[in-house]
Task: inverse folding
């Protein structure tokens, strides 16, 4: 199989590239000229440089490809460039869909997010759930939902595209939670906000495997939730504390955290930097809860992920 991976140098994309190469597949990777390629060291893929919104670049990248894996995205919460996020997540997806449709690609797998469901208020939902949240919690939430609408529209027009909806993606090179784990292992993480926040977890390599299974077995137009399970961050740190003997962080006072988010948000916008807390991040910590059931992927794709406990144990052992 010859596969195109957009965002090949990213966290998810790079693990997918390695999984494909281990199978003996030929891989083309779409990356930007400014991309850091450290994650792709020792990989043999063919690189195509350009923007996800550049139709000519995409036509070059897609030539002779059997399957497209679309992982490229602008992922961030807090202070973001809304216009750039829309360009990458929405217009980039639209352009890729158009090129794939014209080229008659045999299969496309889109890496979406469980965030498209919006706040489920703690209710465990499956792929049949219809979003009830009227507004959007973030620019990322809005743009990924808009991109999913486009993907579903193209599927109804006959494009063989499957959507994978991962929960929180974990791994030793995870740019979001791995640094937190490293601080915990050094004994420097004394406080943490939102211990009751529920987090869905999937190992990045299990996500890569799910995407490959979706290319092989996924039904065109189908959505597949990808999550090994969920737990609160307090439970997460308790498991890591039990493994290491390191004391779990104490709960930061909610009032102080909210006050800090309200103060730092405008400062970050004025001076154009990403503060550790913002109104949007505080909202995700305390007010938004998305819980999911990944039974469909297990049954239809034969997906067999490692458990949440195994994922966390591996993260602790290799960080």
Result:
């Amino acid at each position: 199989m010859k596969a195109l991976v957009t965002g090949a140098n990213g966290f998810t994309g790079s693990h997918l590239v390695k999984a494909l190469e281990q199978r003996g597949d030929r891989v083309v990777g779409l990356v930007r000229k400014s991309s850091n390629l450290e994650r792709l060291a020792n990989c043999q893929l063919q690189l195509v440089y350009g923007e996800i919104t550049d139709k000519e670049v995409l036509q070059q990248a897609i030539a002779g490809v059997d399957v497209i894996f679309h992982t490229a995205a602008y992922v961030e919460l807090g202070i973001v460039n809304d216009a750039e996020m829309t360009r990458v997540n929405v217009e980039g997806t639209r352009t890729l869909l158009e090129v794939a449709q014209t080229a008659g690609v045999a299969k496309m797998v889109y890496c979406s997010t469980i965030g498209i469901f919006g706040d489920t208020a703690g209710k465990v939902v499956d792929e049949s759930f219809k979003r009830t949240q009227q507004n959007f919690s973030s620019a990322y939430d809005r743009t990924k939902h808009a991109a999913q609408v486009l993907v579903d529209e193209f599927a109804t027009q006959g494009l063989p595209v499957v959507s994978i909806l991962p929960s929180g993606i974990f791994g030793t090179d995870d740019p979001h939670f791995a640094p937190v784990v490293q601080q915990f292992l050094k004994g420097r993480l004394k406080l943490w906000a939102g211990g009751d926040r529920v987090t869905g977890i999937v190992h990045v390599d299990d996500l890569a495997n799910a995407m490959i299974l979706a290319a092989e077995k996924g039904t065109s137009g189908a959505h597949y939730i990808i999550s090994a399970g969920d737990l609160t961050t307090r439970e997460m740190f308790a498991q890591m504390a039990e493994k290491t003997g390191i004391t779990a962080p104490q709960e930061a006072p909610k009032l102080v955290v909210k006050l800090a988010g309200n103060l730092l948000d405008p400062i970050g916008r004025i001076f154009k930097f990403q503060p550790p807390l913002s109104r949007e991040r505080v909202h995700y910590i305390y007010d938004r809860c998305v819980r999911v059931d990944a039974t469909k992927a297990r049954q239809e794709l034969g997906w067999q992920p490692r458990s949440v406990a195994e994922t966390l144990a591996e993260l602790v052992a290799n960080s």
